[in-house]
Amino acid sequence: MRDLLIVGNWKMHGNTIMISELVDEIIDGLDASSSCNLLLCSPFPYLGLVSQRIINSPISLGAQNLSQHTSGPYTGEVSAEMLKDMGCEYVIVGHSERRELMGETNKIIANKFITAIKSHLKPILCIGESLDERKQGMTTSVISDQLNTVLNEIDSNDLSNAVIAYEPVWAIGTGLTATPDEAQDVHAHIRAEINKSSKKVAENIQILYGGSVNGNNAGSLFSMPDIDGGLIGGASLTSLEFLSIAKATNK
């Protein structure tokens, strides 16, 4: 049985007061009977603040991005070792907003994934198709291409220390979401692709769903056999909504 993981991706939101209150409210509202693990991915400037506030709680810390370089003259970039120094255990790699807005290619994302693995950070590899690609019936081919660009560069065992997040681009921040059956089909495809390299890894890797998840649809999504939690955007900025999603993991 795979553990379920709920990840809060705050994107470029927050300030010291708001984030302090949000973290405290999440910790205070945690249900001891919850069967999931919680991870908060803060903007870079607040990683230290969150790290301090989650001490002695079951919450883990993650970052939203990292440099593919280990160090050097890369103004404005943040290395894996810097993230670890701030207490991060995870890092999001290849979010669709990085792909679309920042021009990150599959190759750049593969390099970032490798950098994270080598630095003993757990990468959360985001993959997903656009609305046009979905309408053209390209979902599985796009997913396979994004995934295999990484798989072809690593040992399959490296995926044992990683997480996959399926995020249909057309469902991010739009209020639209894949039906549980639609999401399950893609998750099953991802697991089948990984199975080609390693059956053991495919059986054990967590595959999250991300795309307008909320307290109302979380339960039906997480009830699917290949969906192991969620990568939560806007709903993670409200403690009650985020906690309601976490409670929906009791499947």
Brief account:
With 251 residues, the protein is an alpha/beta fold. 39% of the residues lie in helices and 16% in strands.
Task: Give the structural class.
Answer: alpha/beta
Secondary structure tally: strands: 8
Q: In which range does the helix fraction lie?
A: 25-40%
Tell me the number of structural domains: 1
The CATH architecture can be given as Alpha-Beta Barrel
Structure report:
- The model has no long low-confidence stretch (mean pLDDT 94).
- The chain has a single domain (4-247), classed as Aldolase class I (TIM Barrel, Alpha-Beta Barrel), CATH 3.20.20.
- An 8-stranded parallel sheet has the order 7-6-5-4-3-2-1-8.
- It contains 11 helices and 8 strands.
- It is an alpha/beta fold.
- It has helices at 16-28, 47-53, 80-85, 96-101, 106-118, 131-135, 139-151, 180-195, 199-204, 218-222, 239-247; strands at 4-9, 36-42, 59-63, 90-93, 122-127, 163-166, 207-209, 229-232.
